[in-house]
Design a protein that fits this description.
GO terms for molecular function: G protein-coupled receptor activity; olfactory receptor activity. Its main location: membrane. Pfam families: 7tm_4. It is a single chain. It contains five helices and no strands. By secondary structure, the protein is mostly helical. It has one domain. Helix 3 runs antiparallel to helix 4. The protein is extended.
Length: 139
């Protein structure tokens, strides 16, 4: 597909098309299964925390789910907006943008979103911020 962008004639062979389709379908299904597994993990975390029955425990449980809920909403929202509309309602350009969002942007953001909940990652980011703040400024 990438080499096709540079060619004047925009055609690919049947084998290349089938390979590209299967790879994209496999990656899409992997993303859906990963989100489902993470949703189950978050569900188990909330159920065990809600048994504590403290307000602080409830807040912690819902903070745990916030990032996952945002990711799932972005992913499935863009997928549904691409595939569940009549073809005359959207332009091809809009479909392409939405496809890039759910196929490339959201999978790239997932590790960032979930790692920012990790205290070790937060510590590394704080140390990097301090180092940058203490660097001499060029004029």
């Amino acid at each position: 597909m990438l080499s096709d962008f540079l060619r004047a004639k925009k055609t690919i062979s049947f084998i290349a098309c089938a390979t590209q389709y299967l790879l994209l379908a496999w990656m899409g299904m992997s993303e859906c299964c990963l989100l489902a597994a993470m949703a189950y993990d978050r569900y188990v975390a909330i159920v065990s925390i809600l048994k504590i029955a403290s307000f602080k425990g409830c807040i912690k449980a819902f903070k745990t789910c916030g990032f996952h809920l945002a990711t799932v909403t972005l992913f499935y929202g863009t997928v549904l907006s691409v595939y569940m509309h009549h073809s005359s309602q959207h332009s091809t350009k809009q479909d392409n943008v939405l496809s890039v969002v759910y196929a490339i942007l959201i999978p790239m953001l997932n590790p960032l979103i979930y790692s920012l909940r990790n205290t070790e990652i937060k510590g590394v980011l704080k140390r990097m911020k301090k180092k940058v703040a203490h660097l001499p400024q060029k004029e």
